[in-house]
Amino acid sequence: MLRNTYVNCHTLDGRAVPWQPPALPEGAQAEEIYFGRVLAEMDRRLDRGGLTVYATNDVESLPSYGRDVVVLLIGEEWTRVPAYHADVRAIFTNLAVRPELGANPLRDPSWVNLGLTLAYGRMWAYHFPGQARLRMRRARGGWTAPILRLPIGILDQLDLPIKPLAERRHDVFFAGSVGHRGGGAAWLLDRIRPKTVARDRMMRNAERLAERHPELSVELATTAGFLESLAADSAAYSHAMMDSRIGLVPRGATPDTCRFWQVLRYGCVPVVDALPVHSFFYDGAPVVALSDWDELEDAVVPLLADADRLQDLHERGLEWWRTRGAEAAVGAYMARRLNEIRD
């Protein structure tokens, strides 16, 4: 029995509908599968009831306000500070709380880092006005809700039993979008868009890996864009990932990507080009980190030849998912942070 009231405003048509987590509400999007379970666990662990929890992607308004209102902000890529930051108890967001560069463009000049720098500046243009208002209010002693980061989630990944590494068919796996592949302005933007530039480099190096090492099974599949990836067969995607030892995790529009958590959840070893900054969810995660996708072959071939290291990363990755990214762990984190807030 839930002790708090839940309303999903993150619906396909924008309506606010009652929600009984972990059940899916009417008009739910893929994110609610994961976050429904998260909220159910949070509700179980809270010290108090009587809260109203809104899941939303709206940074301007809510159906109601008050110190009994908690917000789950989904998909805010621009790190805008919600206009209601002084009117609610707490705000949890599944993306960055503030702009993150995720690279050193002066030390490592490249097209990827140029795109990252431009995107970083644009994010600050969105973030700064709200952050300035928040800081001014705090300086005057006014209440402002804590804005707390959560994992991005796993979308509609299937619940599957973990397959031992030795029984998996594929050595390296990636399936997802690379760029828009359109003409005109879309093509020009893709030349500097961090996601596209990074993933183009990843694909070229993954294809080169497959050519140079035919003894390896390198499974690659691309789609035209994020929406096409969502519409793809989630069962086929899930089974292919569970049948792989290493998962390639290129950055998306932001350093965070649901693929990071999907790979850990299935016990694949993540090979990443960027990780968000967060002391609980990301810092110290068991990944193979590349500064450039040109390092892919040198990182992957020795790893696949080292069964003990591969198994160690596999086991630590499953434990990281269980204690950091799984719905029970995230729900417990939310409850702990809410329990710390005093009226």
Explain what you see:
The chain has 343 residues and is of the alpha/beta class. The chain is 39% helix and 16% strand. It has 10 helices and 11 strands. It has helices at residues 31-45, 111-139, 184-190, 194-212, 226-231, 234-242, 258-265, 296-305, 307-325, 327-339; strands at 5-8, 17-19, 52-56, 66-73, 88-93, 147-149, 170-177, 218-223, 244-249, 269-272, 288-289. The strands form 2 sheets. A 6-stranded mixed β-sheet has the order 2-1-3-4-5-6, with no helix packed on it. Strands 8-7-9-10-11 form a 5-stranded parallel β-sheet, with helices on both faces. Helix 2 links the parallel strand 5 and strand 6. Helix 1 (31-45) crosses helix 10 (327-339), helix 7 (258-265) crosses helix 9 and helix 9 (307-325) crosses helix 10 (327-339). The radius of gyration is 21 Å and the shape is globular. The two termini are 25 Å apart.
User: From the alpha-carbon coordinates, what is the Rg to the nearest angstrom?
Assistant: 21 Å
Share of helix, binned: 25-40%
Strand order, sheet with most strands: 2-1-3-4-5-6
Distance between the termini: 25 Å
User: Helix segment count?
Assistant: 10
Beta-strand segment tally: 11
Output mean pLDDT: 90
How would a textbook summarize the main sheet? 6 strands, mixed
Low-pLDDT regions = 225-231
Tell me which oligomeric state these chains represent.
Answer: single chain
Strand content: 15-25%
Q: Identify the overall geometry.
A: globular
Structural class: alpha/beta
What is the H/E string? Answer: EEHEEEHEEHHEHHEHEEHHH
